[in-house]
């Protein structure tokens, strides 16, 4: 029934002020206001339609993405949107595109690693999109091992240039988003060679394509690497392959904030840690953590609304069947994900603060918090993306058969999100970095150095004080266990940041109580999942463990009447969710039925191919039957 809110009764059950929760989720009244305005702008504009995305062939899909990106840019300029509003607009357009890398990596790389002079030259061009850039680091043969990259940048003192070259097939750049078909420039990572000496990997700005006719410049071979997982999804992006055949660039196109090459070919290192060459990755990992809550909350919103609409079994005297959201099994799978979405939101906010703080310290030549920032961004990127990717898939299963339809929105959401577990650092490789940081901390505790920040708790663990561990000894052998320790450390950060959030003043009737319940669900469900570890190490007795489980079930009952309102607080429009199962009005069945008839396969009653491939079979059967 059109216009009827099938979830109205659910909404009436809410025990808290949903509008106040929307502000908590958005971060501030101002953020909420901007989100409302920009999301409506996008949803009301038919140019941003996306419901056909999973049905388009790649070339059409890609052209459509180019059209949308150009149109978005036009609207940004026409409406004179601020940078905040422009990035919100790109968020609500909700289509992975070359612009993500241009704004998300190319510009930050120049800002973070370029000198003031380089920034003055390149940033205005990039901000006006007079050049379009990507981040070309990964190669066919090496991604995780950045020190293993093979592309070379050899200094030629005669011409004051670098010669960029791909010496092997495996040195071909492979994966960079935006590279395949669009970017005119790339921040390219290559080994710096001066006078035969290898100075390791550095960043260089390299022009790839002509600004006149978009053809690759001499010495450049470039193209798209091909179709990726899923329909629509990440196939709107032109992940690319790139080879250099002795391509010359001026010396001043090496990004020289961290280290410099002089006119005479002298290599000079600034007083800053070499690891700042990896700075763009730290920035993007922090952004990815902030994004995880968006993706997870989307899936949870769809699964929660549909779980309230869907009924199976339990009809009494011909009455309605049970809403599947009332099954404890459904709650025990869904509500920890709802709690995780909120938990990741708050840890994302905190990580943004940590990153800003580190950046301010770096300006003042204080590098002391860099290792912690690296460990936190790497670890939380790994934890939040793994939980989110698995969570989206769990939400699909929570929606039963209909979750498998593209019109549920969940298959595409999973396909577009799951590479986040790999890009910007494979999740296991990143957890090994955290493990290494933790082991280093343990080795220092023995020497009396007090850990601070997110590792302060380690200084309070009695048996760690007696440890005399060497970081490398046994590391490889125990790496699988160390990865588990790294995950536990990151979980602790998430829990403590959720608790810190609750210590703030949170206005709105019932809002804090709901967040307390969600926080409880978050840590108790983790405790439940890992109770074997807690029991084995005597951190919990069996009785405590049973009490914790009772408490968890009680919290599920507390959240149940508020579930729909808690996902409404994410404030997602139907356009953004793009899911029939997750419709705000819960009008699922008529819309599923209607959508099926719009599938291109239903354009004709007799399908293409019938006369060639089906009819002959039927004829043959008639013939056989007569025999
Ligand atoms: C929002 C925008 C849109 C997003 C779209 C995303 C599209 C995707 C883009 C990409 O994927 S770009 C490519 C991303 N690639 C990676 O993430 C590669 C992962 N690998 C690495 O980061 C590193 O190679 C490594 C795994 C960290 C290892 O590096 P390396 O071998 O040089 O170092 P180690 O010997 O292990 O460590 C040396 C020392 O440096 C510290 N360290 C390492 N990384 C950082 C860092 N980023 N920041 C600060 N410090 C770092 C490390 O802890 C070691 O410290 P010590 O132990 O020696 O003190
Ligand atoms: C959609 C997408 C977009 C991307 N965009 C970009 C981009 O814009 N720019 C760019 O430069 N790159 C990009 N990448 C590349 C990406 O950064 C790399 O794929 C990523 O860093 C992982 O590296 P890899 O592919 O070498 O994995 P590998 O390192 O080959 O991983 C393979 C397996 O080996 C394991 N492994 C590797 N090393 C270790 C170790 N030391 N110990 C234990 N296990 C290990 C991993 O856990 C994994 O299971 C993108 C990738 C994808 C999928």
UniProtKB/TrEMBL annotation:
Flavoprotein recorded as keyword: yes
Key words of the record: FAD, Fatty acid metabolism, Flavoprotein, Lipid metabolism, Oxidoreductase, Peroxisome
Ranges where the Acyl-CoA oxidase C-terminal domain occurs: 461-619
Residues in Acyl-CoA oxidase C-alpha1 domain copies: 278-439
Cofactor: FAD
Sequence ranges assigned to domain Acyl-coenzyme A oxidase N-terminal in this UniProt record: 17-132
Pfam entry (one): ACOX
Keyword Oxidoreductase in record: yes
Compartment list: Peroxisome
Protein name per the record: Acyl-coenzyme A oxidase
Protein's organism: Rehmannia glutinosa (Chinese foxglove)
